[in-house]
Amino acid sequence: MSAVDTSNDNKAQRQKQLQNWLKSFTRKATLTNTLASIFGVANGLLIIVQCWCLASLIHGLVMDAAPFSDVSQLAIIFVVSGVFRALCLYAKEWFGFKTGEIIRVTVRSQLLASMDRMGPAYISRFSQGHWSTVLIEQVEDIQDYYAKYLPQMRMAMFIPIFILVAVFPLNWAAGLVLLCTLPLIPLFMWLVGQGAADANKRNFIALGRLSGHFLNRLQGIETIKRFNRQAQQSKAIHEASEDFRSRTMDVLKLAFLSSAVLEFFAAISIAVMAVYFGFSYIDHLNFGHYGAGISLFVGLFCLMLAPEFYQPLRDLGTHYHARAQAVAAADSLYDVIHAKPTVSAQASSKIAETFGIGLVAKDMVVCSQDGQPLTQPINFDIKPGQAVAVVGPSGCGKTSLINALLGFLPYSGRLQNSPKLEQITWLGQSPKLFNGSIRDNLRVANQSATDQQLKAALIEANAAEFVNELDRMVGDQQQGLSVGQAQRIALARAMLKNASVILLDEPTASLDPENKQQVNNAIAQWQQQNTLIMVTHELPSNLVFDQIIRLQPLANKEVCS
Amino acid sequence: MKALMPFVRLFARHWGWMSLGLLLSLLTLVMAIGLLSLSGWFISASAVAGLTVATSQAFNYLIPAGGVRGLSIGRTAARYGERLVTHNATFKLLTEMRVWLWNKLLPLSIGQLTRYRQADLLNRLVSDIDTLDHLYLRLLTPMLASLSVILLLGGFLAIFDATAAWFLCCLLLSLWLLLPPLFYWLGKRPGEATLQAKQAFRIRSIELVSHASEARVFGYQQRLQQQLNDAQDVLLNNQAKLAKITGLSQAVIIVASAVAVFGVIAIASQSVMSSTYSGPILALLVFATMASFEAMLPVAGAFQYLSATIKAAVRVSDVVEQQPMIEYQGHEQLNVNRETAIEFQNLAFQYPQQDNPVFVNLDMKVALKERVGIIGPSGIGKSTLLALINRQWQPSDGQIKVFDTPLEQIQETSLRQNLVTIGQVVHLFNATLAENLRIAADVNDEKLVEVLKAVGLDSLLQQPQPLEQWLGEGGRTLSGGEQRRIEIARALLTGAPIWLLDEPTEGLDSDTEQQILHLLTELPYQPTMLWVSHRPQHEQYFDRVINIGEFQSK
Predict the structure, then answer these.
(1) What is residue A349's predicted lDDT score, i.e. its pLDDT?
(2) Is residue A556 part of a domain?
């Protein structure tokens, strides 16, 4: 029992923490946030003005039999207040949007800063889909919390108070009706909310499993067709979808009750007001008016304000999901922004040599950022200008070693002469070229390179077919280039960087034999003066290595300190 | 607009629930207007009656006071009912649309479907279907309910004051007619631009993430971040336009309601002055006018998003209106007791819109229970050959026979029962282990356990109720090797005599690769195998190899 309690406690604590964190961002947009609330509340004040005018108008026309021209001034104030209300609502919407915009920009830049700080090893722990969801959907999900929910919350706090202030001096009985229902509302909503939460919890696992059902079957449509299960699955989709409907309806039946409670209070208070004032006028009731009597004006004014008293709360209810959505999104946003390595990468010392750096490792264990060992202790002594192959079964940490040499992952033990990122050039398994011309893509490696030098590098990388196409555009995800072509351009880029250490992580893994041969030939030409470390699972026949480092699988004895 | 018609027609199937929802939403509005108008009239009338003792005593307060109470409770109940019914109807429509989409997608060939899988369009398709339910909840219901309210209210008010009723009706009707096209027109461009901007932003953020290492080594993070920020600016600009339109839609309704009240008072005060009717009727008219705008609130807002709904409808229609590339018209049942399992006669294939054929003059027989390796460099058309047997494509020339029957003459079910394909991607359904296996055949639990043991998945059986364990999203994650074993278990369950294998060990580490190779060559029964591989070391497992490269046109 206590285990469940603690986990619920933790959950509640986490929710609280996330909410406070979300709220703390309003400091970045104090002005717009305040303005949105002010215009929202001003709209409420103008409603009171409008009701005042209208009640006086009707009183004058009905009780005093005044001609319209006598009261036309009130009518004009009524319309003008309406125009101002429209302006207020427009301004509220605009400043609310601006608040959300400023905060979204802030959150995104914090996300990017954190990703930058944590580096590629952290980024690669999650899928690209995960990151695009975090950067886009989850950040977008916090918008309405700032744009709609927060201003509405201020309105729900202030407008009912203003209405009470307007009503009480005229008639305490009417004021009391409103005042008494106010604490009942949160009570009922809490009761109903509990029930909805319970129903939700009961259905939680089933709903979770059902929600992705249709997409999952669509993704598996090939498999279903292969096994000839089309008709059966079409029935299953129908059933799952209906099951989802009935379970969701179970939850909604209770969830809608909470808004029904508000509706009920709004409607009942109108009814009570109408009956109270009606009966007072025909002398069946006689209280609430401080002995001053009740004019039709007072009755109409209170009656008109009664629904407005509950309206801000009802509107808050419709924005309630904005808050829930924001807190849900904050869950992962918070984690990314506050990500910290438990073990930090070692600072490397700058080395004077221009090319050919020797590296010495002694009991070097590469660690993940949360302190898990990723390799067995590694020992090597690489002389300047040597070519070294790193081999070993999959999962033994070959790529982790490269990442540690790049400074993306921390390690324990010793690594002497570890080079700085500026001194390293690198080529990975799958080439990544960005959207831009081939020239742009090559020049990032060497800003001062002339077209002649770029062409020379392309020829050297066996990518001679592109030599006269420096202006050719590379599309998103290397559109228009084959994997082999892209890899050879990436090789030229790696060659253009003025570096003393070459790190290669299975550069030919995704290539067919012909391209493989070409890339390996180019590497053999290039390597001669520089220190080269190449991770590979089969030793290429046309490359000569001075040393081969064999990594063993982890023995689970390694520690990161 | 025309794009929405197929969906509106689908909705017709649930007209009962839908009209009940509409009716309740109308009832809610009528009761809300009734409550305020009756209350306004009641207190004005009693105030007038209270002026003298005689009128005060004669005033019948019981009926209106009871009416006020009844309406206030009725409105709450109707609103609650409306929300339940409309949501229930929406979910029913969703089911209808899903099943419809599924049945439309089924006849498309695997080649046509693969395009959607790869580009992640399926995700979008599912959210498009979800968007289309707005059509009922946000568009049809509020529009029809508000129109009915306008007409009913006009009729009701005309009893008291025809001029005021005309004025109000004309004002509301012109809002009802003008606001939707206005806000549709206003929202169209920024709405579409927002969608595009989001797409561009997604591409930029994926670029930023996938270039994480390169960008650091070659120092172009700034460039990527700048591009991402530019994409964000475009998105924010268009969202700002939409926010202004939302603000405008609220403002228009507020101003219109003030003008409406002003007009009704001006008109009604003339009648009161000329004693056409009494003062409390004026109060009734004013309160009814104020309340009627509750029905107008959704009219402007809903249309801001119509363009997005139409776009979704167009995209879904584009997918479902494709002609299936291959139609199964054959009726032959396969007779598996033949000596030749598969025969290629003078086969040639060329992809549409490509200059060179993949292969020509391919002649070959595969005997029953023979294990044939298809080798050759990548991109040469090894997988294409399997796709042709699977009828994902139509040969350009020549023909393929399975058990001596030409492919075109075989009934679809019979072909599927006798062929299984094992590829590199294994689809695990979000379902139990048993359901994941029973995709292949309806067999009892004992048989499932037996097959799981045969493929070396004993590890999955080490827990209570192993067949009920959940796989896929939110369930147990399986390693690449385990996933291949599941696929092999499925194939075994079908008992199909011909297996097509498309690099079934690709992407596995060498230990697992050996285990899977072993498993595939030591199966409980020996199917005919056509096995695509680019690894020379696999050749020892085949009875015979053919090199597709030999059939290229020179």
Answers:
(1) 43
(2) no
The answer to whether residues A351 and A328 belong to one domain is no
**A54·B261 Cβ contact <8 A:** yes
Helix H, strand E, coil C: the string for B378-399 is: CCCCHHHHHHHHCCCCCCCEEE
- What pLDDT, on a 0 to 100 scale, did the predictor assign at position B325? 79
Q: Is the pLDDT of residue B396 over 80?
A: yes
Selected residue of B39, B116, B435, B537 to mutate for chain A interface (largest A Cβ count, 10 A): B39
CATH number at residue A155: 1.20.1560.10
Task: Please name the helix (run of DSSP H) or strand (run of DSSP E) that holds residue A550, with its range, or none.
Answer: strand A547-550
Residue B420 and residue B494 in contact, taking contact as beta carbons nearer than 8 Å: yes
Query: How far is Cα B116 from Cα B128, in angstroms, rounded to an integer?
Result: 14
CB under 8 Å to B419, separation ≥6 — which residues? B389, B390, B402, B496, B498, B499, B500
Q: Within a domain: residue A415? A: yes
Whether residue A560 lies inside any domain: the answer is: no
Q: What CATH number did the domain enclosing A403 receive? A: 3.40.50.300
Q: Is B36 helix (H, G, I), strand (E, B) or coil?
A: helix
Q: Are residues A26 and A92 in the same domain?
A: yes
Residue A3 is predicted with a pLDDT of 46
Q: Do B346 and B238 share a structural domain?
A: no
Residues B167 and B23 in one domain: yes
Domain coverage including residue A221: 3-337
Last residue of a domain, one of A337, A371, A396: A337
Which two structure tokens, joined as six digits, stand for A204?
């939680």
Can you tell me the distance from the alpha carbon of A133 to that of A121, in angstroms, rounded to the nearest whole number?
19
* Ordered DSSP codes for A343-358: SPPPPPPP---SS---
Structural domain harbouring B424: 340-551
Contact partners, residue A499, CB within 8 Å, separation at least 6? A355, A422, A423, A424, A425, A530
The verdict on B292 and B361 lying in the same domain is no
Whether B244 is in a domain gets the answer yes
For chain A, what is the largest distance between any 2 Cα atoms, rounded to a whole number of angstroms? 110
State which of B270, B287, B320 marks the end of a domain.
B320
- Kindly report, residue by residue over B221-247, the tens digit of the pLDDT: 999 999 999 999 999 999 999 999 999
* A531 lies within 8 A of chain B by CB: no
Last residue within a domain, chosen from A281, A314, A337: A337
Q: What is the pLDDT of residues B306-320, one digit of tens each?
A: 887 888 888 888 888
Q: Which residues of A touch B259 (CB under 8 A)?
A: 79, 82
Beta pairing, strands B397-402 & B405-406: antiparallel
Residue B333, domain member (yes or no): no
Q: What is the tally of structural domains in chain B?
A: 2
Question: Is A118 at the interface with chain B, CB within 8 A?
Answer: no
Q: List B residues 124-153 in contact with A (Cβ-Cβ < 8 A).
A: 125-126
| For residue A269, pLDDT beyond 60 | yes
- Res B115: pLDDT: 67
Among A131, A226, A242, select the one facing B420 at the smallest CB separation.
A226
Of B106, B108, B111, residue with least CA distance to B387: B111
> B445 and B352, same structural domain?
yes
pLDDT digits 0-9 by tens, A370-406: 788 888 889 999 888 888 999 887 678 888 899 888 8
Q: How confident is the model at residue A143 (pLDDT cuts 50, 70, 90)?
A: very high
Say whether B122 and A234 touch across the interface (CB within 8 A): no
More confident residue, B510 or A157: A157
What tens digit of pLDDT does each residue of A305-341 get?
A: 999 998 898 888 788 778 888 988 998 899 999 998 7
> 3-state DSSP call for residue A76?
helix
**Secondary structure element (H or E) that encloses residue A99, with its range:** helix A68-123
**ipTM entry:** 0.87
Listed residues B320, B350, B370: the one ending a domain: B320
Determine the 3-state secondary structure of B108 from DSSP.
Answer: coil
